[in-house]
Amino acid sequence: MIDTTQLAEPGSPEEMLLRRIDFERMPRHLAVIMDGNGRWARGRGLPRVEGHRAGVKSVREIVETAARLELEVLTLYAFSVENWKRPRFEVWTLMNLLKDYLYRELQTLLDNDIRLRVIGRWRELDNSVVKALEVALEATEHCQGMCFNIALNYSGRCEIEDACRRIVADWAVGKQVDIDPETIGRYLYTAGQPDPDLLIRTSGEMRLSNFLLWQIAYSEIWVTPTNWPDFRRPHLYQAIVDFQTRDRRFGGVKTDSNDLLTAKRQR
Ligand code: FPP
Question: Which residue from 10, 106, 135, 237 has the fewest beta carbons nearer than 10 Å?
Answer without folding.
Answer: 10
